[in-house]
Amino acid sequence: MKSLCTLTVLALATWFVHAQPAMRPQEQVETLQKSKIPFSKSALFKATPALNDPDVPNAQFTLFQEEEASNLLQDPPDAITLVVSTDREQFVLELFKVELFAQGFSLKLARPNQGTDEIGAGVYYRGIVKGQSGSLVSLSIYADEVLGLISIPGRSNLTLAKYQSSKIKTPGLHVLYAEDQMPEHHDFQCYTPDGQRGYSANELEDHPELRSANSCVNLYLEVDYDVFKDKGGLDATQRYIMGVFNEVATLYANERISLNLSQLYIWNTVSPYSAYDAYGLLIQFKDKRAGSITGDAGMLLSYKGGGGIAVVDGLCDPFNLGYSGIGKSYQTVPAYSFTVMVLAHELGHILGSHHTHSCVWNGNNTAIDGCPGFTDGGCSTPAVPREGGTMMSYCHVNAAGINFSLGFGPQPGNVIRNRIANAACISGCSNKPIVPQPTCGEINLSVTLGAYGNETTWELLDVTKAVVDRGGPYQIQSNGLKIQKKICLPPGCYTLRVLDSRGDGLCCRYGDGAFKLTDSNQAILAEGGQFAREVTTTFCIDAQGKKVTNVVPPPTTNLGCTEINFNNYEILSFGDSQDQGTASIGDNGKSIVLQNNAWKAIPFEYDITANTFLEVEFRSTQEAEIHGIGFDTDLSISTVYTFQLWGTQDWGYQSHNNYEGTGEWKRYTIPIGQKYRHKAQYLYFACDNDAVASIGNSQFRNIRVYEKNPCPRLSNFDTPEAFASALSVFPNPADDQLHFRLEGWPEGSYQLQLFDPLGRLQRHQQIDKADGDLTVDCTVADLPVGFYAYTIHGKDHKVSGKVLVKRAE
Question: What UniProt keywords are attached to this protein's entry (predicted)?
Fold first, then answer.
């Protein structure tokens, strides 16, 4: 094959390739419309006759259509036009779907194994009110309710929620109301102290070149037991919190700030947070979580405390925490916009902003507004803004109020954006608009659910193992419910992966579920129902969605490889009184270190079969009595489950007790299933030395569990992510030339390959990397329009991704 790729070494010049800046919802909607992305019409609400409830002054009512919601949840469109018709008014909403969760997101319960620990089915949208410049909308849609906010300049913030009173008995009734007009609306007192150092002119200025870096803030939320108890359980609690987070993320998106949820921790048992003032609760939260949260900032939510408090400028600091005293529900409706305001306000402190009545603004140490009637710092008191206050103001204490559509205002917004852009601990993320897809063929997926639809999920993966579509989990009481989905895919090879979180498949222990995937001619691509934890099928289709049988599909191995990231698990004490030591997490969650007579475990449900293997790297710099690892069904010590790797005392299986004591890492591949088979609940680790408890350490890293087919080989470099982050591929989409820039990669020989949608090699180039940065220029002008997979691999690592070849109009 003739090579069309050439090399360019940049010895003196530095190239900067910036990610696309985050867009405001208004700009996102306009971009989608210009790109001819269709906005599906949804009849989710229907007007009602005039209704009245004196407990909700000036409220408007609308009827929620559950059947329409069910269809939308099964196949949520990327963009929708939704009309909310009330008994007095009509709002036309133009919305686009958003993903709220950071990569590796987890939901954790304080008391595990009490029902599901998975986020319930919901779909999240944000956008604008058609024809209302400066408006802002967020909607969180569930099977039987919607939580949302509509903010229009010049009007109070409107909350859309399920009507909770028995005064009007109408199924599906929802209410649209202004929370600041409730007779006993909540008061808010922020106890965060304002600093005395004024912001510099540079801190207050807008820096578009920093905005384009598009950093993403990952937020850890912890919900106190009083909220869980008031909401009536896990499902209602997570719905409410996710609805609140959607709106908070929408407010920040309107400031060109990307906000994701990295972990949601819910106390479903009594929590240790016993203080009754905001400061005391923050101190207790700090004592428990400082330096250990999964995220860039953490917030405790509770009804206690009577206000909020946070650490100003907490990014990249172990004390990156805050407390938000949120609002309890009113008699008939939830306290929603109040909670959104409190959480967004306190997070703004962590991200660097003081109150707007603090004497730190304008470049001359004066205040922006005088909403509370005074200033903090002794400067003169400005007027109260007639159009309403911004997010870091105290305008909620007077008639001006806080208008969400005004956001944070220019100066606080610039401070926050500049803090994020310059924070070394914040990673980049993608916030790109939906782009038109190349010509695709339509296939059809049908899933008949068993009794527990909340256990069922599925995903489609392309040849690079990137997820191109997914579905589930579904509602719990769902036996016999049929899910139908049309899927449009470019020509190529794909893998359908159907999973059951409990390991009993769709059929036949609890129901008679099944799945079937057919091409555009109704030929079967994949089908089944009786399996354990997952089943995978690989298939290929052409541009018309027809099954292709003369193409050898890519291998389906390694799809079941489970890699342990300790940041996603709670570290538990194992073995009762045997555990007297400590554990610490390192390497971004990839490793754990046990010291001083420690036995620790993580919750880890896994059906161990004859083909189960455990891969782990181990080292120690001080020998103890037992260094080991194993899977157990409870938290009690069992010698028959432990594989000993080193130690002065023989205990457990001795087949891998061969560590040389060098202090260097050694990799073990342990055939667990050849020794025992059971449904494990915990993965545990040992550094036993009860004879002399103050010595001994066990260090474990790169832990992976798989069935029969080995996981992909681990890189000898720090992480594959390090290589991926040092690779820039641009432009994407590409028309004529595609450039691969390798920054800081080690010297050596690399292979660049480009595959078409059917997995056929189209480009192959050997790269001899010397010192300095390197750019590979690749011609794609002669390639057909469509998605292409690329790989760059060396001796011990591989980086993969996708590019789109698209002709300029």
Answer: Signal
